[in-house]
Amino acid sequence: MPSALNKITQPFIYEINTWPWLEAISHEEGRAIDLGSVPDRYWDEVADLGFDGVWLMGVWQRSPAGVAIALSNDDLRASFSAALPDWQTSDVVGSPYCVRDYVVDDHLGGRDGIASAREALAARGMGLILDFVPNHVAPDHRWTTLKPELFVSGTSEDLQNDPASFVELAGRVLANGRDPYFAAWPDVVQLNAFAPALRAAVIETLSEIGEQCDGVRCDMAMLVMNDVFGRTWGDRVGPPPSTDYWPTVINAVRVAHPGFVFLAEAYWDMEWALQQQGFDYCYDKRLYDRILQGPAEQVRLHLLADDRYQHGLVRFVENHDEPRAASAFGSRRSQVAAVTALSQTGARLVHNGQLGGATVHLPVFLGRYPIEPTDPALLAFYRSFLSALADPTFRHGHWQLCDRSGWPGDDRYQNLVAWCWEGDSRWLIVVNLSDSTAAALVRTPWADLRGREWQLTDPTRNIALVRSGDDLVDGLFVELDDWSWHVFRIDPTTE
Q1: How far apart are CA 298 and CA 266, in angstroms?
Q2: Whole-structure pTM over 0.90, yes or no?
Q3: Does 1 score more than 60 pLDDT?
Q4: 153 with 103: CB under 8 angstroms?
């Protein structure tokens, strides 16, 4: 099935937390809705916002064993109460990253439901992304009893001495899943990334997933890289194979599914290494942190990285793991944060609820959203901003960081960051990432603008200006209030 994700190198992706999203639609429609019966208008709303792909997060079969573990965890129960004060046991549907089986959960519509959703997205020019969790599975996954050789094993002594890190299943002691920096996760069992049999099983699993979607978002992708996995598990797993996990898996899957998109959740500065191992896109958590924490100069320095590297990053100000942007940044500041992240090169990710200013970070175990008011000003901003980003230049054009400078004794220019796009049209974006007014001279790289006047139109702020091309090349004076921006389309004047 053709997909926009195979054709667009700098896509916009919309993340939907599938279970609570369907629950909200069911409530609104007054009947049970699954992926096979979503009314057209809901898909139309996503398409009309200009997205190229939808990540339906959490469609795979949930684990009853994982639900039981979650309900017995006091910290998780406290997080449920904080997000959804009236939660009931029935709202705890289990973590989407505690996968019992890679089949679409019957509650969500099963395989027929996901096929209908994919068809609906494709009819609107959008691709479908689903999850893959390489590091672990649920304790009641069939592999734990049928293929124990796929897991990191332990001993009875391990179980006795460290019961929080090991579990006994079908008479065997297996390790709980973990990363090298934190305690084990009690609801999942650790796969052995060094086991050749696991890699074969994963290739088979991903090839089956590839029949149902256009790409996968791989959870904590760096955990199964040879060096990280060996550092985490040491002598328990022995020496690493001669080839790394991801090149082996990705290359094999793409034999059956050419153009299949691999997107990595990545941390610890592992993005470049994962790109080299075959990933199309990797999370840019560094950019998120620098936008959130500042100063602006750190954002600018981050954007000086190699173009090819940046082209393979995923930019965002919110996803299901991070706090809601309206909460983390505040409603007004979240707008300039979105302009900064979502107008960069690479893939851009927007989370369901972000546009309306949702503030509650829902634990992934819950299948129901709290009722929250919509922020009309934030929604209006996003609609105008995403309408501007619908220009094909932001998908197929060339991105470049712009120079900016100030005046002797005036360092306010350091709070401004500027970049531009050239393709079917030209755009200049300038942001003030500070709580005070800032000014600078901003220079574009387009020498051919000289000698005539140009119209600068910011559709997100209803601003239209005429400026000389010489100013745009030699230094355009820009002054912005705190946490403000310009998104200028540059067109020749009618003269």
Answers
A1: 20
A2: yes
A3: no
A4: no
